[in-house]
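Researcher: Sequence recovery benchmark, item below. Answer with residues only.
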């Protein structure tokens, strides 16, 4: 029996899931879970890459100890963030996309390459943390002069495991540097921004082998295995993990972020698409035409501030019992990385003439209802942009377990919600690995 290990790392947690096929159906087992999060240091916000890598190795060790031989493993993570290398050394701490470091350079980037031109080339929606802007901040800091390579987070972790550097297509597309038509780094855009060509090598499709574990890693893990590339952007793997019966529906990958979209045969680069801030990210043989909108970050941040440790199920049921009717614009920039999420809610609601929440549950009710409103707006936009009318919505990811949010979403969108409270990302990751092995 061939067993595969999916290492799925999100912005707030990571997990190692071992899977195999029985009668063509996946059977999975979580063997390791760990917390993740960026930490403030010297005025910036950074990922602890050493801690992440230690967790990756420990999870591999647990998988081999509990499940035996692992045929292969693959890593998926969030997008846009990367590690700059000088030779085989990490050149600088890995900044988080929630850092404010790009605010001063966005205008400079657009002065060289207007956003209309960026979108026409890459099809990627504007987000202030896109890789295209982060690299410019690094350029101004003098880092690109010394950098010999840059690796997106899953590529960096795979390199640490194997000593082999390979760049994967789906994750690269998230940052706004990949040509939507060719599927390669856009040399014209990179050149206009003064980014060294040496940083941008060939992009590999999902399913590409990387290499075997380095001897010292295999010794720590207690065994040897092959590292391969899955669709290494977590949402790309999640879309691969959607059950076959739901693949023609719009999907909502509900986690820290909400990613709302459909599978498309080719990119949509129209002016209407650009104005709606829809994006054309790479998938496993198709385009993920979607909108990257606010997700459970609102709820996670409120919980951390108001009721640390309280069970999310309890939070949802208390929100259901609240009669509060105030709403925020969940995608307003003030909610991206506030010092206080409660304070951001209070300020927004006051500025828009809405009553102040009186109880903890009112804040959560407002967050859930505002997310549902945001999903309804995204669905309406999607129908206009694709010229199609959809009768259902497929929800995967952690948010699919939230029945209250699903009910609010169904009511707001006016379509049937099909919630799949499964580890869709891990399933998509495992599916690509199994396909490599002919299963």
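Model:
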């Amino acid at each position: 029996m061939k067993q595969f290990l999916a290492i799925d790392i999100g912005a707030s947690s990571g997990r190692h899931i071992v899977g195999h096929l029985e009668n063509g159906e996946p059977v999975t087992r979580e063997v390791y879970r760990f917390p993740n999060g960026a930490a403030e240091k010297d005025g910036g916000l950074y990922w602890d890459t050493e801690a992440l890598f230690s967790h990756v190795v420990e999870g591999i060790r647990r998988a081999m100890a509990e499940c035996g031989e692992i045929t292969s493993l693959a890593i998926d993570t969030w997008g846009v963030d990367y590690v700059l290398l000088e030779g085989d050394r990490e050149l600088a701490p890995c900044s988080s996309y929630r850092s404010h470091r790009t605010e001063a350079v966005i205008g400079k980037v657009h002065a060289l390459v207007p956003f209309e031109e960026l979108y026409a080339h890459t099809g990627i929606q504007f987000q202030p943390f896109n890789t295209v802007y982060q690299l410019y901040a690094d350029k101004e800091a003098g880092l690109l002069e010394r950098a010999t390579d840059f690796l997106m987070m899953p590529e960096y972790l795979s390199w640490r495991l194997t000593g082999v550097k390979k760049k994967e297509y789906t994750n690269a597309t998230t940052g706004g540097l990949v040509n939507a038509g060719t599927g390669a780094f856009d040399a014209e855009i990179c050149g206009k921004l003064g980014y060294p060509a040496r940083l941008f090598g060939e992009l590999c499709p999902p399913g590409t082998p990387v290499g075997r574990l380095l001897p010292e890693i295999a010794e720590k893990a207690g065994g040897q295995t092959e590292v391969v590339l899955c669709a290494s952007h977590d949402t790309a793997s999640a879309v691969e993990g959607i059950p076959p019966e739901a693949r023609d529906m719009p999907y909502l990958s509900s986690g820290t972020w909400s990613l709302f979209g459909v599978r498309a045969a080719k990119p949509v680069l129209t002016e209407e698409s650009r104005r709606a801030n829809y994006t054309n990210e790479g998938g496993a043989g198709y385009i993920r035409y979607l909108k990257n909108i606010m997700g459970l970050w609102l709820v996670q941040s409120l919980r951390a501030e108001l009721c640390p440790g309280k069970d999310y199920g309890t939070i949802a049921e208390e929100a259901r019992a609240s009669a509060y009717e105030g709403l925020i614009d969940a995608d307003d920039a003030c909610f991206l990385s506030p010092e206080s999420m409660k304070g951001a809610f209070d300020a927004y609601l006051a500025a828009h003439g809405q009553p102040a929440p009186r109880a903890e549950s009112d804040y959560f009710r407002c967050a859930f209802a505002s997310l549902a409103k945001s999903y309804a707006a995204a669905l309406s936009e999607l129908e206009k942009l694709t010229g199609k009318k959809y009768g259902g919505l497929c929800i995967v990811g952690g948010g699919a377990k939230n029945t209250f949010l699903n009910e609010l979403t169904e009511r707001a969108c006016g379509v049937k919600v099909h919630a799949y409270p499964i580890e869709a990302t891990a399933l998509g990751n495992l599916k690509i690995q199994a396909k490599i092995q002919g299963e």
